[in-house]
Please model this.
Amino acid sequence: MDQSVRFNVNGLDVILKEDFDLGKNLNSVIKSETGFKVASFNSETDRFAEYSASQCGFCTPGFIVATHHALTKCQEKGEKPTEEILQKSLDGNLCRCTGYRPILDACKSLVAGVDMEDLGEKAAAASIPTPPGRTNGKLYLTPKTLPELFSVLEQYANQQDDFRVIAGNTGAGVYHDWPLERVLIDIKGIAGLARIETSKDGKDLLFGANVSQSRAIEELQKPSQPGPFHRMAEHLLRIAGTHVRSAATLGGNIALGRLRDLESDVITVFMAAGASVQVVSQSSKRWLSLEEILDSNTDLKLGKGDIIAAIKLPVPQPTDSFWSHKLSQRFWNSHAMVNMSVWLRKEQPSLASTLGSKLGVRGGADARLTQVRVVIGSPRQELGGKWQGQRAKAVERALLGSALDVDTLIQALQALPQGLHPTPTPGVTAEFVSGAAEGLLLLALAPHVMKSASVQGNSKLQDLLKVHSMGEPPFPVSRHSFPDYSSIAAPIALPVEKDRVRLQTSGEAVYVADVGTSTRELFAAPVESTRALAKLGKVDPAAALKLPGVVAFVGPDDIPKTGSAEVFGQVLFAKEKVEYHGQILGLIVAESQVEAERGAQAVQVEYLEDPSLGPPLFSIAEAIKAGSYYDPPMDLVTTIGDAKKAMKTAQHVIKNGRYKLPSQQHFYMEPQGAVVLPDEAGTFTVTSSTQSLDAVQKAVAETLGIPWHKVTAICRRVGGGFGGKAVRPMPVAAACAVAADKLGKQVRLTYNRNTDFRQNGGRSETEVEYSVGFDADGIISALECKAWCLAGAFLDLAWNDLYGVMTGLDQVYELPNLHLEGKMCRTNLVPRTIVRGPGFLNAVMIMEQVLEHVAGYLGLDATLVRERNFMYPKDLPAHPYAATTPKRKSQSQTGTAAAAPTKTDDQNCNGKAEFLEAHSEAKGSSDDAKGRKEVGETPSKRGTTPDVVCGRFQMKEPGANASEASLNSSGRDFPVNQYTLPQVWDGVKNQVGYAAKQREVEDFNRTHAWLKRGVAMTPTRFDCAPPPINAAVSVYADGSVTVTHGGIECGQGLSTKVKQMAAFALGQLLPESQRPFPMDKIHINDTRSDIVPNAGPTWSSTTSEGCVAAIEQACNKICSRLKPHLQQKGSTWETWQATVAEVQEGSGLTPASVMLSAYGFYDGTARDADGRTTKGAKSSKPLKYTTFGAACSEVEVNLLTGEKTILRSDLYFDCGRSLNPAVDVGQIEGAFIMGMGLCTMEEILVEPQTGKLLSDSTWTYKIPTAADIPRQFNITFLKDSPNIRSVMSSKASGEPSMMLSMSVLYALRRAVLAAKNGLSEAALGSRAVPRGVSQVSDRDDSLHGNGTTSASLQPAAHAADSLRPPLEGPEAAGIREETSTSCVIQDGSQGNPFFVLEAPVTTCHGKEAMGTFSIVDMLQSATGSTADLEYHSSGEWVVVH
Model:
């Protein structure tokens, strides 16, 4: 049998010959008819499995390969691997599920215990022969010499075929127009271009153009190389990831800088180092500077007639120094927004200065600079926004010939704007580039200036010159604590290894793209609209159909006449008009994926102007102006009490606060995909990456106009979903089915990453306007709020975001009087849909913003204000965190304003969890006595009062009367024993030592001019309702078991928990000493619509519980049938097999005497007190419960660069009795990091003129990497909190913890506010005020912009509180910003603008939020060398004589 392996890399067929050795332990693979089969596992695959470092598993093989590569490199170098080396090896890997912590723990274990000899033999080099003729419609050529290359170039220069010269071919990941080119000329095999050598005179280091970036870095890192080369390597190590650097070449990077304006770090670094580039053609060789390479006036035909052959770096001299840094969206694997490199050469030191240095004398005669190169890479206005690295000539002139003292530094900073000319680009403003460049130059020069005599004795100046730039992140530490319930119902509650995790770590796990191919299989790619709103003319596929491999165009006319042209309210293929940019018009079907994608780009589409359509709408503001809304019930009103009446009597009122919430992409690792196989009798088998087989089955059946029973939908696992695979797979599967039906062949439709982004709008953007009434302690008495959620051109499931806001705004807070209105805006953008925590996350962000605003106004710490507003069960005698009297009445009860509160001892902000527990214990409950004694549980101390109300909403449609509102109540009532908010809140507060932590942060901020920290705590409440679902269990004659559940394994560990329950439930038949049933005898089957139909979607974090309950029911049925036949033997397995043999003799020729298969159905209702079964009559009360959590995060921001670091996050979470702590910890961490990404970097960018999605790739949309997670990341599960009415006393974990990431956002707000206040305080010490920062007094009329501002700071009324927030509010110095919310205060004065920090706080947005300031002015103020300056509101400096 032919054992060669064929796969596809960047559009090329690659063949590994049968003698290719992947290494003894590196997962030896052989290609079989059914896929890849693992011959053995290695240390890495085992450790990743053992440390729960794989959830959905789609990204796991990449992490394994990266880790193995790093360990192998250490072995080759004879080095011991370290945590930092393995962490760095993951710089090119992304994971959406795990939050990276378990991956890093697995790496750490490899450092501690890996046997280097166990890594296996070094893999042999792959033999990749040149594919014969055209491959995937492309001609692939590999010249071996330069003459051969120029001959090929000459040959194709005169032909019509487009061609491109490639080496590493990594540019295809950035520029997606390349697949149209038909001829690829790979120069990687030209040996002469891969050399590294030193010139004969030792003055230059030469790199061949084909030298990979990784090889170049290794050369620069060698101990024998001078220090500046080492620092160059540090910068180059931040380019892309290890995988890309290993393939990408130096010459290719420079060529892309010339041809495609690549945001190049190589060019910036090498230009500062004085590099020159050799360009060769068939007739010439010449050396050019990098400035000449980038100059459009230079006669260069790179990739056509000219080729970069080599790069030459001058070897640094002893007096040379080099500094370099880049600012990007994240530390790893992110292109530069702006970068800078500085090369300095000082004159040879004199004897006196040398002796002084040795004696430790600082200052004296400072050496002058004899050579200076300062290079800045940024988008350039003069180049039309194109990115380019250029010499900062004016800065160089200011430095050259001068000593690096304060005066020279000031002159250099003053010269910086000359020639910079920044221009805004998507996600990056011109102001950011200017400010960041100033900060970077200070970072580069300040360490030199600190050594000069001009700084000695000036402490203020020294403080300004103490600078810090973000370096390689340290290896994070973590701590996890969860109670041990393993003795109650083993293997439930044990941290059991994830089901089939070793198949995921080895790469053997099968996803949709791995489903067995057919020899008759075809591939499809979508044809997308390039207009957002237009009448559709002709769609002409003629040009595409002429391309090699293209088979057919599939469009709206191919949908069967009996079928439906719409899927979930959206047209499948646009026919008469297009309504958003990227809307699918049809499919191109071809013999390969590459040919299909190239064909789709070749389809010609005609758009017709139709004024009746009006202008396209791309924002909430535009939709509001046009009155573009979806019809009710999307237009909602939620009412509690009488907010308008309570607002009139409130002690303080803030009116017209405004806040914007961002969208977010799912960024699951496995893109949308479906495989449809037409079968006999008009049936179809659909394999889909979906969270709902029912939805896919419905979409295919209704599109084809056939009964549902003729469609079998199958899913084994999903490579991440997060809500994005609930509805969005429906049009994918339906379109694929239309193609399969038309062509009568198996068709595969898999979106590439860019298409997936464009077809999936993500979370709904939300805008709110609010007014809030409150008392002097911050207790809210009234809240009025309007919310607008953005939906796309079709509604999809975007309404969930609005419903989540309407029903979840209270979160953990008591809102006695609320009036909330909501609208769903219709726009011409891709449809929005549900994303992890739909609506609830929006609600959390809105409510936390309101509380921050109240706290800021009063000058109170927001933690105090949060506590004082916590909801609490009404049968308690007092609020657990009361600021005033033990019992308070809401205004809805009294109709009058709350009495003025008196101060209590809040100084330490201690919670009163013990008070609540004592009250619950005193009340007791008969339910509690039942407990779980039969399985050894100690009964809970907390009482249960099922009818106790703790927060209730009345939601009604507009115009509905009171009785209808009552019927539509969506009140969330829960027992007092589920009110665990005080426990988790106090738990996290005590864990971090919150009061001490705040003092520590304040001390840090006082002693650091350019770094500021912030710390914040936020709570969450999440309401859960496990859905009805079914499952099937079958026992075979040999005793083995197959389980088929109705849920979808998305990485959340659903199948693992199901397997644990099956082992527990089947074990109940066995003698107690032989329990549980062996898990290795249980196989989890694919989820299939023909076995478990009507199962509904997997979402809301509760499907695992429903499946576990259904499986228990099915297992109980089988056990009851087998119980009369029990045969006890010596071991668990012997007993089980003997029992089964009593009813099925196992010959395969006789049937069983009892039914060994059973269905279970969980009906969605509450459990009995044992938490497992519903006994007696069917319960009529749906199972609903609430879970609580709390988090505290500490962050650090850099004023000079906008960079940020999450220093620490502690999460305290009520998971009930976790079904699997390892799984649930992973879910909590992954959700938190996903939310952190929304808060810090994930920015969706849309072209405002066209509606085109600009952030449609990994190049432009950034999720966190392993370098971005908190440096200390601690997770604690609350003890003794059983959810006795739920399934096995468990609670959900996958979505609730995402809300806790808001602690990061508000910690960032505090840090940014501290930065702004620091600038303001610096201004108070002199007449030189930083630009953009104005002084604001305590309730001074100058707030309105009249006269000179007062510089006095007066104590706030609540100064007695020990937990002081950063200065903010009407009783503290404030800061005006254009981004602030201007609010009207109802107590007789205009309140301060409230500082709003909206997510995501990207590097750019974070720096801008801290305010624009002049480093020059601050330095001059510190030296006392400036004239008196006065800052005017116009933003200009005026010299006062």
User: Anything to note?
Assistant: The mean pLDDT is 83. The CA atoms of residues 931 and 938 lie 7 Å apart. The chain is about 30% helix and 20% strand. The first strand starts at residue 5 and ends at 9.
